[in-house]
Amino acid sequence: MRKAVMITWLVPVLLLCGFVALFLADKYLAANNKIVDSLGEYQSEERFTSGGFLNYTDYEKYTYSDIDFSENEYFESIKFASKKKLLTYIETFEAWIASIEKDDPENEIVVGYDFDTAVISEVDYIYISNDSDDYVSGLSDVYFFDMETMTLYHFRNNM
Predict the structure, then answer these.
(1) DSSP annotation of 90
(2) Of 135, 145, 2, 124, whose CA–CA distance to 60 is shortest?
(3) Span 46-59, average pLDDT
(4) Is 137 exposed, middle or buried (0-12, 13-18, 19+ CB in 10 A)?
(5) How many CB atoms lie within 10 A of CB 48?
(6) CA proximity to 128, closest of 118, 137, 119
(7) For 101-120, what is the mean pLDDT?
(8) d(CA 69, CA 56)
């Protein structure tokens, strides 16, 4: 009798948790896609991730053949203050990559991470979602577009 009552409650609760997880994942992907989609069609993409549902680190690269930022509602040309924020965020992001590497040196994000801050210049563009002093905490998505290589870099750490 107890088993039947437990199963009667457990199945709906598990189904509800599954639907909530799918909803949150879809909402996150839709938010990410609108930023990437705002740049038009990309030629190639690379995605690297570590972690799971609520604790994860993502690094993505998209290459483009042609970009026009004049009408883009998200990106702004990089300035001294936004470059400083970007460098601080990348420093924190790379600390997480190093932490992942300690436990799992063959992790896909450790192997795939190849960003070099030397590519940052005054002709590039940046978008930081939820731009506030809390951007270092990993609660923001940081997008950096390198005009020389026509590459969009996306950094996200939610640990």
Answers:
(1) H
(2) 145
(3) 86
(4) middle
(5) 18
(6) 137
(7) 96
(8) 30
Residue 143 to residue 58: CA distance in whole angstroms: 12
Scored b (16 or more CB within 10 A) or e, 10-40 reads eeeeeeeeeeeeeeeeeeeeeebeebbeebe
Per the model's pLDDT, the better-predicted residue between 17 and 154 turns out to be 154
- DSSP secondary structure letters along 59-83: EEEEE-S----TT-SS-EE--HHHH
Which uninterrupted H or E stretch holds 99?
A: helix 80-103
Tokens of 50: 């570590």
Q: In this structure, are residues 50 and 57 in contact, taking their beta carbons and an 8 Å threshold?
A: yes
Structure tokens at 41: 């069609």
pTM: 0.77
Highest mean pLDDT among 41-45, 48-52, 133-137: 41-45
% residues pLDDT > 90 (the chain): 62
Farthest-apart Cα atoms in the chain, separation: 70
- Do the beta carbons of residue 42 and residue 63 sit within 8 Å? yes
